[in-house]
Amino acid sequence: MSELDFTSILLRKNSLRKAVEEASIADLEKVLADLTEIKAEKLAQKEAEEAAEAERLEAIKKIQEQMAELGLSADDIAAQTAGKTGKKGKVPAKYRLIDADGKPHEWSGRGRMPKVFEERINKGASKEDFLIVN
User: Which domain of life is it from (predicted)?
Assistant: First the structure.
């Protein structure tokens, strides 16, 4: 039985009645107790989420009040943090080689070594042979 079928049975009284017609009173009481416990857990989880959201909104309100007292706006904060995403951009090539077809290949020295460089090193060259000298 799929989850959808199970949910469909639980949500329709006649389907539920048919599904439990062979169950004993003790079994039905156990199911009822389990459902009551699950309901209480869900309610507690919902209350905790609502409390956390209320706390978050209160913190935002306090920060907005502090910003207003100091004459700051969200744009002021955004201007100070613009460009500070932590990403450093593209790393310049440190190594270069020209293949047999005359095509240049460059590598920053970071990450996995390109196959072209790997093949040349396996034939006896060293990485230093491909250093780009400025």
Answer: Bacteria
